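re: that chain from earlier
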Amino acid sequence: MKKFLMGFISLLVLLVGCNEKDQVESPIYEGDRLNIGVLGEASEVREQNINFQSITFDKLESDVKSISTEFDAIFIMKEHLIQAGEKQYAKVYSELGVPVFFFQSKKSYLPFIYEDMTYEQVPNIEDQTYATGILSKKKDTYKYWGYGLYNDTENETNIKDVYSRIFTTIESEVK
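^ sequence. v structure.
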């Protein structure tokens, strides 16, 4: 029984040790308060200075001019990527004036900047990031960011790290 207990404890220590290798502790964003419009449900974040506000595609499309004064960025979550990749939205993203981040897109940013292709038409891309961001600088010219997960491991700590890095980018690009 004693050998079994020691073996079990050793196994637990080994498993915990392996798990720690798949996550990163990174600094949290401590900059200015950010207001972010979200299509979908954003993950919980470590930061207290982030205000998420749910928006709709109708608002995104009809209030393009007010979006840049109301929000510092737009987040589009996985469950809305197909609709976000519809042809009419490429023009919207190019006119927003704030960065747009797409979470868990297997298509990178391609279906979101070209009016002649949809999300479903773009083939999956092997080397993926957890979040992809774009900001239109002028007509047909974009700034692009990609944020991967530490060791390509999806867990709460690594996802929160991605959000913190995105917040830092938003502050440096918009504020």
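Residues 1-19 have pLDDT under 50 and may be disordered.
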